[in-house]
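Instructor's aside before we start: the two examples that follow are unrelated to each other. I chose them only because their records fit on one page, so don't look for a connection. First example below.
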Amino acid sequence: MSARLWPYILLGSISGGVATSLAVLREPFWIIFISVLALIVVFALVQEAMRDPVEEGDVGEIEPTKPMPTGFGRAMLEQMPIPLLVISRRGRVVYGNRAVKEILPNLKAGLHFASLLRVPVFVDAVNAALNEGENSKVSFTTALPHERYYEASIGLMPAGSDFGDKVQAIVQIEDRTQDQRVEKMRSDFVANASHELRTPLASILGYIETLQGHAKDDPAAREEFLKIMDKQATRMQRLVNDLMSLSRIELNEHIKPCDPCALNELVLEAVSALLPLQKKYDVGLETALTGDPEVAADRDQLNQVLVNLIDNAMKYGGSGTVVKVFTAPADLRYANMVGITVADQGAGIGSEHLHRLTERFYRVNAKQSRNKGGTGLGLAIVKHIVNRHNGELQIESTLGRGSEFTVWLPETYANGH
């Protein structure tokens, strides 16, 4: 039996004996008093028994934990953005700052660290630090509720620190999920860009080889092949231009535009630039703008957004249809914002594709996109520009009825409100 229970058992036995003696002597007051005392002892025994058992070999090592550092030291630890854990030699959590509680919401002092993060590589690293004094850095993932990537640095805190007189482990946990996602996006981007450039380049090289061979004396074949090569070279040029444009936008995405811009005026400029394409696509182009909204904008970039969306609507809207550009009705989800909607009457887009449309090189129909001169980067560029303007891109589509792309931008006011 645990040594910590013996004082309670001894006191209970004495109380029981005294109560029995008083009962024989018929002393009601003292019988009641001793009975209440016995109940208190029993309650204490139950509470003590419910606590986590401690191995007999560890009893000599248990010492009261010193109070948390107060004042500036505590405030500094609490405000640190890096999650911190202090773990005792017995594996119990001594302290966790505010940042670590965002990762481990069930964190409480006294819990065993392995019950908070059931990850073998992490548990082994902490045990190695506590038992063998090994400092280490480990990476691991957690699956629930969503997959996250973490990196933990584990070291020893010397005896005599503000957290106690025993050597303890200090753990720093950093969320690397965003870094992993960025790295994956970068590698995917390089792979996709290489593929997109390799295809037209291989086509051009193939036609050059043909022209140098049996087709060099065939004027008709030469003319046809040169047209195809021109088309492929133009596609490569568009792709390179879009890649450079996307890089510039990402580079300056953190710099928010501040120049006042009359939104309706900018919309009409974009529409006017695309009017000559009505005949090419056999598509009508109509506008319905209201009010006189003003936004803080990079004029050239916002023009790029509008031209891209309207051009896409004309390409994919379908022959004999009308593309409409209009002021979006007010929406409580976009308070203090003004919206411009570009709507087509095309085939529509399946709901399973909508959330991926702004990914680089994502296409619903790759062959159709390439045939129409698309690079797969247009909506990614739109999304980044809208983000830079603190705006939102809303996409809605119904199969067989068409799609609507709405750009929401924070509205500015002449009076400064």
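Example two begins here.
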Amino acid sequence: MITQIGFLRKGDVFMFEGNIYKVGHLLESTNGHVSCIDVNTGKKKRLHIDVDVEIEQAN
């Protein structure tokens, strides 16, 4: 399922730029920023996403 960044929820798993991420939390004023964990490396990242993303697993 493809969705906009504002519709992601904590725990959702999505693909962005060929990598798979799990949503940690969305910032109050998202402005396209999301705190997430790279599923492959386990590292926390803060991404700026200004395009629709594909949800792999909805929470």
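The chain has one domain: 2-57.
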